Structure formats: structure tokens, C-alpha cells
UniProtKB/TrEMBL annotation:
Membrane-spanning residues: none
Keyword Plastid attributed: no
Biased composition, class Basic residues, residue ranges: 1-11
GO molecular function, one term: cysteine-type peptidase activity
Superkingdom as given in the UniProt entry: Bacteria
Protein name: C40 family peptidase
UniProt entry tagged with the keyword Aminoacyl-tRNA synthetase: no
Biased composition (Low complexity): 48-75, 144-162
InterPro entries reported in the protein's UniProt record: NLP_P60_dom, Papain-like_cys_pep_sf, Peptidoglycan-bd-like, PG_Endopeptidase_C40, PGBD-like_sf, PGBDSf
The NlpC/P60 domain, residue ranges: 160-270
Keywords: Hydrolase, Protease, Thiol protease
Listed GO biological process terms: proteolysis
Family: Belongs to the peptidase C40 family.
Amino acid sequence: MAKHNTHRATGRAHTPVTDTRRAATGLGGAAVLGTVLVGTAFAGTPAEAAPAAPAPAPATQTAPAAPSTTAPTTALQSSEKLRWGSRGDAVSDLQSALNNNGANLAVDGVFGPLTDSAVKDYQRSNGLLVDGVVGPETRGSLNGTSSAPSGGTSAPASSSNSGNAIVDAARSAIGTPYSYGGSSMSGMDCSGLINYAYQAAGIDVPRTSSQIANGGRSISQSQAQPGDIVTWPGHVAIYAGNGKIIDASGSKQTVVERGIWGSPGFVTYR
């Protein structure tokens, strides 16, 4: 009698036959591998990314105010007279004030030839005495607290009147002993005589001979008027007219009036 083998081979799993056509497709036509769904969502439609949210509108901002382009007015606080050779913060303030009025100076606190020229240009443009010295009138004008002298004159007196005053003061010093560094009737050197005579006419000039020669406006001998200054290297004198000068002579050791010699230069502060 034949026997049916009812035992399966040990270790072999029973695998039911499955229609491969059904296994090849799943929901929505996507392939199904085990329990993993590939290429589709369970809803049966392709997955779509959510649209990006619109960028928020930028907050309205008030544009910053444009910086002022007007240069601040520089006040000259110092009451000291400034001239060629002066140094310090007062000169720096002066240079800044001149720059605010059209100059183009380095603000270095040194009153040199460029600052001297800028001061004279300002004085000339504003009807002031053109002497390169920043005294009360020029300082007040730069600070906006004073006006130019009435009539637009550039000196407190006419050129001829101031020249006569300068020559008269210089002649009054004839015979005064020569004294290096002096500027009084007890003794004076060449630049001291210039300062003494010009102060009598109310005009400020630098102290040393080189500063005096470089500080004035150069003119020709034919343009020179009594009271203008005659210059040589290391020496200055007052032009008395008619080819003569008054000077404190180191060789003669006194103040004298004498004829011009050599080929000097001429400058004016009027």
C-alpha cells in the first residue's frame, strides 16, 4: 500500500505562489516591496511640496538725514596777536577759520608763509589793513563780530599819512645806540627800529628782519613810498624817499639816515 509523505523537508519554508503581475503593482501603480511603498503617498496621488510662504514685506524705515556739508564756524578764542612765527592752538584755530573762508591750509599750528599769505588775502578781500597780523579787527571779522572799516579802506589812515608817521618816528630815533634785540629809544637793532616806527603809525609787523622781509608784499623800487621797507639779507631799513633809508646800523652802532646801496628788495605792509 502506497504511503503519502505528509512531512515537509526540514528547514524549507512554505512559499505560496503569488501572481507576479499583482505583486508588481500596488496602490496607484507603484511597486510594492514588502510593506514599503515607493514613489507615492498612501493617498494614491503623487506627493507635492507645499508652496513657499511669501517673504514678509520689509519694515518701512525712515532714511537717515543727510549729514550737513556746511563747515562749522571756528571761533578765535585767543586775544593774542598772531603773526608770522606764532605757534600753538591759537594758530590752528586761525588756520581752520581761514579754511572756512576759502583757504586751503594744513592745520598744523605754525604761522608760516602760507598762513601769512592766506591772512593777507582775507584782509584784502574784507577791506582790512593788509599787514598779515591777526589783531582785534581781523580776528573780529573772522569771528563775524565786526565789519570792515567804513569806506572799504585797507588802512586806518591813508598810505601817505601812515608813511609820513613811520618816517617821522624813524627820524626821531636817529642817534639811538645800536643794541641787538632792542626796540626802544635806549637801544635798538634794525628790526627793532622797524617795529618802533610802525607801532607809532598803528601798524603791526613781525619782529625779526627775515620775518619782516618775507611777510610784506614785494614791490619794485619805483613803487616804493616813504615808510615802506628796504631789505637786504639779514638787514632791513625804512625807506625815507629820494633814494635814502633810515636804519639801525650795526657797522655804525647807531640809527642813521643814509643813501641806499647795492641791490635791495622792497616790501610794503600798507
